[in-house]
Write a structure and sequence with these properties.
By secondary structure, the chain is of the alpha/beta class. It folds into 2 domains: about 170 residues, Formiminotransferase, N-terminal subdomain (Formiminotransferase-cyclodeaminase, Chain B, domain 1, 2-Layer Sandwich), CATH 3.30.990; about 110 residues, Formiminotransferase, C-terminal subdomain (Alpha-Beta Plaits, 2-Layer Sandwich), CATH 3.30.70.670. It has 8 helices and 14 strands. The strands form 3 sheets. Strands 1, 2, 3, 4, 5, 6 and 7 form a 7-stranded mixed sheet that branches. A 5-stranded mixed sheet has the order 9-10-8-11-13. Helix 1 runs antiparallel to helix 2 and helix 6 crosses helix 7. The protein is globular, with a radius of gyration of 18 Å. The two termini are about 25 Å apart.
């Protein structure tokens, strides 16, 4: 199970309590053989993203250590944030690095799912780990969010892949699977009015007839007195970062709103940046965020 390296990029439903977030990151960093390469959080999204890599077995151990801390500390019944979620540990994606066979990554997602189910948390396998096309899409699994999860799990077509047929009272459910690398890219707008961000997101996302392989949300950042077009770019070889940024900039100009900087969340595939100067996007990008990945086919969304 330990050929090549595997990346895990879990989303945790906590973006405000620094002590808790330090505790979660420490659980990962303490796992032998695992390198924590990225950590970010936003209080308006109320979400934390971690990224760590290593041999597959060690990455599974780190994911279990993280989940143990999260399930003990968080209660979704008290959670409200701008980012969609169904779980305290919402999604645990595994991404193949060079030298890691897909079977190894699939085994890792299944091992983590089996452990989560043993803790009484319903499990959905998505993307390349999905048992059916209905389960492949993360937005489809998240529809209704934690608040609608009990009713959703009662439907025969949404019975969990593993675990109980009802949400864990505080942890909800978890989604895990193997997906291709993606680019998470946010562009901030210098306005507190959420209307422009929501309208721009609606015009660029693929589901609305916009740019292929783009998912986008318009989000309020009340603490920063800004709004944001939050983008997942799932096939950056077809729709480039430059294209996405230019469309958002044009939409902002049409709305009479200035841009207020951009940000990358999590590791960024090196191939998505070739020929592009990140400074053109007015975005901070740590060199440690740039990684080379194996080719894994279609993209995914967080």
């Amino acid at each position: 199970m330990d050929r090549g390296w595997l990346l895990c990029e879990p989303n945790v439903s906590e973006g405000r309590d620094t002590g808790r977030m330090d505790r979660f990151a420490a659980a990962v960093a303490a796992t032998a053989g695992v390198e924590l390469v990225h950590r970010s959080a936003d209080p308006d999204h109320h979400r934390m993203v971690l990224a760590y890599l290593g041999p597959a077995g060690a990455v599974v151990e780190a994911s279990i250590a993280l989940a143990s801390e999260v399930y003990e500390a968080l209660d979704l019944r008290r959670h409200r944030g701008a980012h969609p979620r169904i779980g305290a540990l919402d999604v645990v994606p595994f991404v193949r690095g060079p030298g890691c066979p897909e079977t190894t990554a699939l085994d890792a997602s299944h091992a983590f799912g089996q452990w989560s189910a043993s803790q009484g948390v319903p499990v959905f396998f998505y993307e390349r780990s999905a048992a059916s096309p209905l389960r492949a899409s993360l937005p489809r699994i998240r529809a209704g969010q934690f608040e609608g999860l009990r009713e959703k799990l009662a439907l025969p077509e949404w019975r969990p892949d593993l675990g109980p047929p009802a949400p864990h009272p505080s942890a909800g459910a978890v989604v895990t699977g193997v997906r291709a690398p993606l680019v998470r890219f946010n562009v901030n707008l210098d306005t507190r009015d959420p209307g422009p961000a929501r309208r721009i997101a609606a015009t660029i996302r693929a589901s609305g007839g916009g740019l292929p392989h783009v998912r986008a949300l318009g989000i309020s950042l009340e603490r920063r007195r800004l709004t944001q077009v939050s983008v997942n770019l799932t096939r950056y070889a077809i729709t480039s970062l430059s294209t996405v940024h230019d469309r958002i900039a044009a939409g902002a100009n049409a709305e009479g709103v200035a841009l207020a900087g951009s940000e990358f969340i999590g590791p960024v595939p090196a191939s998505a940046l070739r020929g592009l100067d990140p400074r053109r996007l007015d975005a901070d990008l740590d060199p440690d965020q740039i990684l080379e990945f194996s080719s894994t086919g279609t993209g995914a969304s967080e």
